[in-house]
Amino acid sequence: MQVLIINGSPRKNGVTAAVLHRIEENLRGAGIEVLFYNLGEMKMSHCTGCNYCYRTGYCCMEDDAELLSKRIEEADGIVLGSPTYASNVSGLMKDFIDRGHFVIEQLLHKKYCITVASGENYGSQDTLKVLKNFESSEESCVIFRRKIERTAPN
Ligand SMILES: Cc1cc2nc3c(=O)[nH]c(=O)nc-3n(C[C@H](O)[C@H](O)[C@H](O)COP(=O)(O)O)c2cc1C
Questions:
Q1: For 112-135, how does the pLDDT look when each residue is reduced to its tens digit (9 = 90+)?
Q2: Checking DSSP bridges between strand 112-118 and strand 33-38, what pairing results, if any?
Q3: Structure confidence by residue, pLDDT tens digits, 71-93
Q4: Percentages (nearest 5) of helix, strand, coil residues in the chain
Q5: What atom of ligand 1 comes closest to residue 124's alpha carbon?
Q6: If pLDDT is split at 50, 70 and 90, which confidence band does 106 have?
Q7: How is residue 88 annotated by DSSP?
Q8: CATH no. for residue 147?
Q9: Residues near ligand 1 with C-beta < 6 Å?
Q10: Domain residues for 140?
C-alpha cells in the first residue's frame, strides 16, 4: 500500500508539516509506503483557465502538478494538509486544487483520504471544508487519469 502526503504550507518545517510527518511516521510504522511532497518546493503554475483539461483530460502545462497527478493515481490514499490563510487554504494548496479540479471530478472510489488544516484562531474549519470539497467524497478520494481518458471527449 502507498500513501501520498501533500503539504500545502510554504514552510516545510512548519506546524502543518509537523502534523503530516506524525501521520507519516504512523503510516510507515504500519508498513505503508509513504511519499511526502511539499508544494512549496514544487514548480506549479497557476491555472490559466484555458479549459484544455475539460476537453482532453490533461493539463497543457507540464510542471509538477502533472507529476502529482501521476503519484496520486498510483497511490492507495492521500493526505492533504494546509495552513489556514484568511480562513481558507494556502495559495499553494489553492493552486494545486485549481490545477487538479477537473481531474478530481473524475474520482474513482475506494481510496483513502485524510485532510489536515492548521491555524491559530479562526477559520480552520473553513479550510477543512475546502480540502474536503476537493476530495469530494464521503470516505474516499483519488485522482485517476485513466478514468479521464475513458470519459473525456476527443
Ligand atoms: C497569510 C496568513 C494568513 C493567516 N490566516 C489565518 C487565519 O485566517 N486563521 C488562523 O487561525 N490562522 C491564520 N494564520 C496562521 C496560520 O494558519 C498558522 O500559523 C498555521 O499553523 C501555519 O502553518 P505552517 O507552520 O504549516 O505554515 C495565517 C497565517 C498567515 C501567514
A1: 888 899 999 999 999 999 988 777
A2: unpaired
A3: 888 888 889 999 999 999 999 99
A4: 45, 20, 35
A5: 11
A6: low
A7: B
A8: 3.40.50.360
A9: 9, 11, 14-17, 83-87, 118-124
A10: 2-151
Q: How many domains does the chain have?
A: 1
Q: Can you say whether residue 19 is alpha, beta or left, with left for phi > 0 and alpha for psi between -120 and 50 degrees?
A: alpha
Q: What one-letter code names the amino acid at 77?
A: G
Distance CA 43, CA 19 (A): 23
Backbone phi and psi for residue 81, each to the nearest 5 degrees, phi listed first: -130, 140
Grid cell at residue 117: 488544516
Alpha helices, H only, 1-154: 15-29, 52-56, 64-74, 91-105, 124-135, 145-151
Gyration radius (Cα) of the chain, Å: 15
For residue 20, how far is its CA from the centre of ligand 1 (angstroms)? 16
How many A from CA of 11 to the centre of ligand 1? 11
Question: For the whole model, what pTM was predicted?
Answer: 0.88
